[in-house]
Amino acid sequence: MKNILSKYSPAGTLYFIGSMLILLAIWQLVTFVTKAEIPGPLATWAVFSEMLADPFYDYGPNDKGIGIQLWSSLKRVFIGFSLGSLVAIPLGLIMGSSKIGMKLLNPIVQILRPVSPLAWFPLGLLAFKASDQATIFIIMITSLWPTLINTAFGVSTIPADHKNVGKAFGFSRWKYITKILIPFSLPHIITGLRLSIGIAWVVIVAGEMLSGGVGIGFFVWDSWNGLSLEKILSAILIIGIVGLLFDKIFNVLQKTFSYESK
Amino acid sequence: MKANNELLIDDSSSFHKIVTEKSIDIKNVTVSFKSKGKGVFTAVKDINLEIGKGEIVSIIGHSGCGKSTLMNTISGMVSPSSGEVIANNKVVTGPGPDRGIVFQNYSLLPWLTVYKNVFEAVDSVLPHLSKAEKIELVEKNLNMVNLWEHKDKLPSQLSGGMKQRVAIARAFSINPSILLLDEPFGALDALTKGSMHIELLKLWNLDNRNKTIVMVTHDIEEAIFLSDRVVVMNNGPAATIKEIVDIPLARPRNKKDIIHLPEYIEVHDRLLNLLFDKFSIED
């Protein structure tokens, strides 16, 4: 817990404020150059605070508060990311611990990894006949790769010294996995998860723009149709802040589970 | 120990005397590795060595002479390309709980506490014991090396000597009849090294000198102080045994006293000559 607290040093806070001021200045400059066609921070803040005043209102399918939109996106990301991780971690363990597994699976990973989430979407629709599940599907399939690759890397780099301990003392397969393989790979796995949740959060906006319904991505698209740029900018801010929070959470996890820093 | 020694093969005569209880028998062992692009690399060749129960034997030689490889054939980490190793009357096919290993770089698992590092070894080798018995065993062995009060520390919080004591406690805790030490004190400073030697002999004495100890080292004084016999290896590749030297010093040995004994000086010179004959001034 020391690590989290030390993050809030006065100097760190000052730098963060400085950084935000630079962002606001650039934003204001863009507004100035585009002759207020892109709303500035103040105009956006007016709409943003209005949105936050009642985030959970629900006036029918096409008019819901930002809190409801955000919550349904978070749920989808969480489900997609969890399913992806459930596939990625075991596969990564197999790839990392067996040369044959690596040789058989690695080409598949390399081919599927660069495919855009949008390209997967029709397949998801076809398979699930529902846009909601299709969105979860594309989150799953695009976010699993960093976890898979990092897990495989972690497992394949277990030092011979650690493996020899297992051999010398006749560790069972289970003991080897739980006492050597997992503890050594865990920091790598969490690094992978951290990258994966970042991707999942990027993909959700694109996915919801296609799928419609409820969600922060749909909210952006709907605001564009309603020509409310202030709402779009507010949504961008929310997306950014939530992404930052995800990163912070995994950063803390990473520090908690890395044996080196203890 | 002297009496015990006489039961073993007397190398100078090279006739096989009857050995009452053989602990390790290395028969015609050759170890070759396939090395990338360079064909086959032979580390050790045609090694024959018998070690009796309760004996302490050091294997000494220059770096890269295959002494660790030879010892790994006893531990079962390396399989001989030809020949065989018999330990406790069984052909060695892999590592086993009858042979405890202390690795060169301690090889403690960095995410486990001192206690857990020993416990997992006990739990793995002696699964039939009850939880209480296992805990008792861990406690006994950590007490033996005076580390029980450090049981909740992680290896990164320990000094080199302490880590080595954990590794020794771990090896002892599974109560192996053969203890294999691969340059166990190489990374320690001279003072720590000295006290670790005494610790090791104490543990060996506590067990009624029943454990066979094979140790790889490149420290002549260490080899003389601890061993009954010292196996001197030729330089590799394809290293062979150059000579086996008996250490004619009665136990218990006192480090300060033995160095003045004529037997000590003689055996020390002998080992020095065997190891450094190539670098004599005449060359």
Automatic annotation (TrEMBL), chain A:
Residues 70-250 form the ABC transmembrane type-1 domain. It is a multi-pass membrane protein. Gene3D superfamilies: MetI-like. The chain crosses the membrane at residues 12-30, 77-96, 108-128, 134-155, 199-220, 232-253. Keywords: Cell inner membrane, Cell membrane, Ion transport, Membrane, Transmembrane, Transmembrane helix, Transport. The keyword Cytoplasm does not apply. It is found in: Cell inner membrane; Cell membrane. The keyword Cell inner membrane applies. PROSITE patterns: ABC_TM1. It comes from the Bacteria. Belongs to the binding-protein-dependent transport system permease family. NCBIfam families: ntrB (TIGR01183). This is Nitrate import permease protein NrtB. It comes from Emticicia aquatica.
TrEMBL record, chain B:
SUPFAM superfamilies: P-loop containing nucleoside triphosphate hydrolases. SMART domains: AAA. It comes from the Bacteria. Residues 24-260 form the ABC transporter domain. It is a peripheral membrane protein. Its EC number is 3.6.3.-. Keywords: ATP-binding, Cell membrane, Hydrolase, Membrane, Nucleotide-binding, Transport. It is found in: Cell membrane. One of its GO terms (molecular function) is ATP binding. Gene3D superfamilies: P-loop containing nucleotide triphosphate hydrolases. This is Bicarbonate transport ATP-binding protein CmpD. It comes from Emticicia aquatica. The lineage of its organism: Bacteria, Pseudomonadati, Bacteroidota, Cytophagia, Cytophagales.
